[in-house]
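Reproducibility note. Readers wishing to regenerate the assembly model reported in the main text can use the exact inputs given here. Chain order matters: entities are listed in the order in which they were concatenated for prediction.
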Amino acid sequence: MNKFKFQSGTKVFFGANCLFDNKSEVTRLGKKAFIVTGKTSGIKSGALTDIISMLNEANIEYQIFDKIENNPSLENVKEGGAACRQSKADFIVGIGGGSPLDAAKAIAILAVNDIEPIQLIKNQFTQKPLPIAAIPTTAGTGSEVTAASILTIPEYETKMSFVHEDVFPKAAFLDAKYTESMTRDIAVNTAIDAMSHAIEGYLNKIASTMSDVFALEALEIFGACIENLCEEKFDSETREKLLYASMLAGLTIAQTGTTIAHGMGYSLTYFKDIPHGKANGLLLAEYLRYNNEAAQGRVQAVLKALNLISIDDFEKIMNRLIRNDIDFTREELKKYSSLAVKQKSTAKNLRSTSEEDMYRIMEKSLIDRGTH
Amino acid sequence: MNKFKFQSGTKVFFGANCLFDNKSEVTRLGKKAFIVTGKTSGIKSGALTDIISMLNEANIEYQIFDKIENNPSLENVKEGGAACRQSKADFIVGIGGGSPLDAAKAIAILAVNDIEPIQLIKNQFTQKPLPIAAIPTTAGTGSEVTAASILTIPEYETKMSFVHEDVFPKAAFLDAKYTESMTRDIAVNTAIDAMSHAIEGYLNKIASTMSDVFALEALEIFGACIENLCEEKFDSETREKLLYASMLAGLTIAQTGTTIAHGMGYSLTYFKDIPHGKANGLLLAEYLRYNNEAAQGRVQAVLKALNLISIDDFEKIMNRLIRNDIDFTREELKKYSSLAVKQKSTAKNLRSTSEEDMYRIMEKSLIDRGTH
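Running the prediction on these inputs yields the following structure tokens for the assembly.
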């Protein structure tokens, strides 16, 4: 057996009404809440209304910061950090998809540390971050159970992550009803993001017996949901399964981190505004073919867990779920691969990866196949 | 899907040399360590020598308390709590099997709370316990990843548990070399204890999709180790697997708790001094037959995970591993069942269980089969 570390810093409450059934797990966190959410996700999902009603009932003050952008920038979390500090809140409630939850982690640090946001990337802070409660409104990010936060860094023309165990949310409330407001595209893209977490956590140099348990369980559940995803049958059971699987995939990457699919995908999001999950998804079939040449056994295990026979089958599924409608030039892809190879996560890909390898994966995925 | 809560408060480091590879995870816990261990397990395992050398190197003071008895009593942890308080230690290192690790949790509380040990059972304390690092020297207890502590309470003629999230060890170091000093009987008995955790966590009213993942994974690994256990082939791979499986089983009961096999087993230990794991093991076959009548699907899943065909096969394995050489009277079993039915864990058994049911399981296991 390999050496491993296993850590999960988050108490997870899963199921219908879990937020109200476990009120004290929020109210114990402090005396004033700073609620971090996006412009619409908090309201549309119903989670913001629920948390406000709970806080009012418990006589806990709160301030709402609903300015989190998609793929939040350093500037965006800086503004949130300043507002949080000014509010004198002593805990954070993050509501939303990956963007608000990741931003909540940055804000939890910036509120009590007088640093520039870029210093987050190197964990250059000393004061313990404010405690966080997390309520996901998508089934994809897994951020509710990780210590990672992905921020957009214009200076480097990409997204970068920081990871620190003190930003594991103290509690996460996973109620599938909060994911019902997702559009079809958001539901599909975030599901692909979660699947990508499980796959990249499995085809990972630091994967362990323990992280594999979470990754394969997540993939099996996805496998059971794929047909409903393709047919857009978002019944409540499917929504619950996807939320559970995305949490398991989050537990996976909390141990392993992601690898090159995420690393390459960041550029597709940064430069072409392709949603994060879709960006990964456009690359996944070629990413699997690439890893299959060096780690066939593990790629086959991924396919088996998904209940698929071959990478071609996998590709057919992806083509039913998402389509690339954007043209890329070779020069663009060269730039993207030069950025991606610098990501820390690149070194963890199961097959050791060069900049040229990344270029080829992107070329096959985004140019050879064309738009469709 | 069922509602569930998932919590794991312990950072687990697994593998050869994990203690030295992660020194800072111990040294960050405080300035003076109170080392809680048994009369022999700390020394024999080598873990005590290792931790002392590490603390010396880091210039961290320590005091050793090596008086933990098997199945520690309230009196025993009271003495430890007083000694810890007097030592002015600010963190605890627990080394040993379940007894020292469970005692460490009680001592962590008693050192900073001026209460009688019996108050632990009702969580009647207010000050946050000292942080704990745990080093298991058996592969059975799982205590290194749970928030539970089992103490012997002469007043009630049994063992009882308390559970509090603040006593999750902050860090656990699982190095199979520390389990090499176990005798054959201790290795077998503790392995059966761990298997029993996984089974009781699975045949449990509050089992969830999530706890099932851990339970079934643990059982599959046991299944792969059974033949080596029976043949007493304790090679290093088997030791690692058993340690890993016992940790997974610990994660299972950290979510679910145990049920009636443990509840009944406590009397066998309290009154007849039968080692804890063996006590459960003597009852497990009949316990499975009992549950099989109400929950056949799940009992069959247990057998399948263990790679066994039937409960009779399971019984044959247990007969190879342990034998009952103690006579019991019906009066004794009546008393034991009257005690066991009062355990909080009884209500969680998948098949609702009466005192009479417990009596019958014990009678079949301990009288009808006789000593052998």
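We highlight two features of this model. The CA atoms of residues 286 and 364 of chain B lie 7 Å apart. Chain B has a mean pLDDT of 96.
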